[in-house]
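Mods, move this if it's the wrong board.
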Amino acid sequence: MREFWVSSGHHLTRRTEGGGLAVTDELILAYLARPELLPPPQASAAERSLHAALLAAPRRPVQDSEVAGLDDADARENWEVLLAFRDHLIAAPSIEAAYLDLIRNGTGSTPPLFLNQLVHLILRNALDECEDPYVLRAGELLFRAQRVSLQNGAALLADAEIVDSQEHGTHSPLLAMFGQEPASDLDILNAENAWTYWSRSDAFTMALNIGSDPRAREALARVIEAWIRHLLHMQVNVEPLSAIEDHDWRWFVGLDAEASQIGNALWEGRTIGEDMRSRVLASFRLTFSDVSYVDDRVGDRPVYILLGMTPDRILRVKPQNLITGLPLKAYAHAA
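Not the wrong board. Structure tokens:
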């Protein structure tokens, strides 16, 4: 089995009997090593003492008074957020269970960055034996924002952070002068270069042709299936569609805020303009292997899934929508 997504922290965890990931001291120590938590040179003795104590015992209970006693307001806020997140992880039977609880009962003060890191880690577990670079690149959509470039009628997805760094650093001004898209600097995943994904899976430097390469949409379908199967223990079948021709929609899930808005407009029978319609990047049909768990209003009818981009061509997938947005009678249990 080939390694990938080392930056997820997968190697710092261990498997539970149910197949989920258990929180380890090593994982907590990785959070304590974040720049926001490392005491700066001017940090007070109290902050240094707290950090040192947790490095020695990552699960050590921390009293509210210990954090309240810190002089720096930013440091207090950072510690409050991190400790609440740590305690939530420790209290759950698995990282998967902790994530499900957050998205179902409210994320509270948990930063989006921490949620994305959980998705990264959980999806790494769900795709542990995957050997298809297309599926892994499509999986990046669930935890990293994408910039959409339009080239020759194709919609290319490039990692937003990488593109931003190009535009503010090494990105050639000549490309902008001649109207070329930022993704022009990146390799587009194809059959010839797919093998190189393994050596740069943590660099996020390959673009994905979601517009005209059917393998990309098939790969995203497999990711959706794996995500639902791993977190809800349900078998579903997901297939890409060239268009939704079903006039009897029973249910849909928007994979992002834009897709949800477009789906709601279509659901309500409102006419949408070409500008909004052009922001739909892909659509899928999902069916359940066992419909006994499905809301009776849907039954054996398919659930449609939409993927869209914002007017400024940003894609931010909300993978929690695939859990909380499905028409299920009751929640399944995490590993």
